[in-house]
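User: Please predict the structure of the protein below. I'd like the answer in structure-token form so I can feed it into my own downstream comparison script.

Assistant: Understood. Taking the following sequence of 81 residues as input:
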Amino acid sequence: MSNKIPAEYKNKEGYWTGMYRGALAIGVNQTVWRQDPKLASLLLPRRYEDLLRPELKGKLEIPDPETSGTGYTLLASLTQQ
């Protein structure tokens, strides 16, 4: 079955093969964003780096990385980036 997986998702030495690829995205409640005086004039975040804006401190939520594989993947990806 791994012959159907593109080479870019396989380790060149054969130690591992990727088997799943999923997108992680930023979700924004635009109604809340527009009603918040600190956020209304800002552009919506388009990249993970945009989430570092001081105005967003205390306003972000992610799944708990201790109980969620997606939360762990997001946190690990941001840390490695």
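That's the full token string. The chain is about 20% helix and 0% strand.
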